Amino acid sequence: MPCTKTPASDRSERRADNSEYAHELAVHPRLIGKAERAVKGPATLRPLVMPQQSPDLAAMDHAPPARFAITATEIQAVVTAFYADVRRHPQLGAVFAAHVGDWPAHEAKITAFWCNAILHQRDYDGNPMAAHKAAGNVRPGMFDAWLGLFDQNLARLLAPDQAQAWSALAHRIGRGLRYGLLEPARAPSGAPLLF
What we know:
The chain contains ten helices and no strands. By secondary structure, the chain is mostly helical. The longest helix has 23 residues, at 160-182. The model is unreliable at 1-39, 45-51 and 53-60 (pLDDT under 50).
């Protein structure tokens, strides 16, 4: 529905009472008419008054709470142990070796990814889907090995509730990455390349 302009006489009359809201009145004249009929008289807009924020509220970080109880140090320990296992893995080791030249930097980036995903820290700046697609040698079926190895490290290093919660998140992310890689990962015959 196209916007209609309120006649200048109506706008100036309304601005007298609600000058800072005149643009809203001019954009939505039909809504104002409905409001006037509902209250059986001219509608009056009152300015929205926001409560004053206390210094404590203003200083608070508005990030949502962590998905589950875990520390950044625990996340880093899992990531470090996982990538040590990846480097020794017969299938995954070669895939990662083709792309990762600086393992400490890669581990720091993935630790930041998980801290963002779990603790809602905002230190990660990357696009996992784009990175996995650009690699060219990552296949959807590799995520089973990746997740299996990841789950082993979670079970070995964390409390059961932490391991279960992180595993559920990792599997959900893995499903998304696998799905995103499925379409472009096809052989010339059209058959999906799973490994």
